[in-house]
Fold:
Amino acid sequence: MEYKSDSLKQKIISGERISPLEARQLFEMDIIELGYLGDMRRKLVFPQEQVGFIIDRIVNYSNICQAACNFCAFHARANRIEAYELSSDEIFAKIEALLAAGGTQVMLQGGLHPDHTLDTYLGMVKKVKKRFPDVYLHSFSPAELVHISQKTGIDLNSVVSALKDAGLGSVPGASDLLVDEIRSKVSNRKLTTDEWCEVMDCLHAHQMKSSATMTYGMGETLDDRIEHLRVIREVQDRTGILRAFIPWSFSPPMTRMEDIVPATGIEYLKIVAIGRIFLDNITYIQAGWLTEGLKLAQLALIMGANDMGGVLMEEVVVKATGIETKTNRDEMISLISNTGKTPVQRDSDYRVIRSF
Structure:
């Protein structure tokens, strides 16, 4: 067994692709050693000792969502927060505050609204781009795109094409956990794994970028976690559109899954390192400071992660579960600097705007 372990380590260090079975074995590895291997793999794909962040804002324009996922405390049917929809002026005010703070990216986020049509989304994008032509819209989600297509009877390709023409820059790859057995238990009204993959293929056809997230700690097995990574790696092999991988742990409080024991910090760091090793075709792995806390995210930067994601002037979905983590540009710069890395502010395409 020791020989196999040494052989796997050498395979990782040399940059070879590992199998799902080998990735499964890594969960049993010592966390310090695993972190070292994760950072070694990071250096192979991203040798620069710098960590990026972006100043952005999530604008949750509505919490009316017919998906009513069990893991969500934010949708109106969770009976925690009253139903609302923002007006155009309210959306504009939030974007103006972002731009005043030197921000560059807006994430328009909603749910599977029963009354919204393709025209609703097109109108929102066009109004924002007309008022703020230089703002980058990294907005909506694969679930929303599939919802629009199914609700209106318009094929997914036409939906993506219309949104791109209106000014949508890219789509966050909100993937939850890409295992249908888990999805049927926690989000059975949302898109399937195959439909998520179809969205990625469609974005690729229109030369649009995305990302891939991972929400774990929802009762899945280690094999389920590896299967999620396998799906992402295959999609990236096929399309190359995934800018980043962003794992975070499920926060049970105030959801319909409150009885689940939260994942540990060690589990998070292992996901980061194993994600870095297994996803050999994705350059950026984000440290999830919002859900994991700033100090744990800082540790992730020496275990394979190389981006801190958004400073997030406003976040309300995770906050609905009771998590209150906040940061700002100066604190982000300090956190990155204290790991011995060079902090850089970046744009949506991961191009450096300025170094600190």
Summary: Confidence is low (pLDDT under 50) at residues 315-325. The chain has one domain: 20-345.
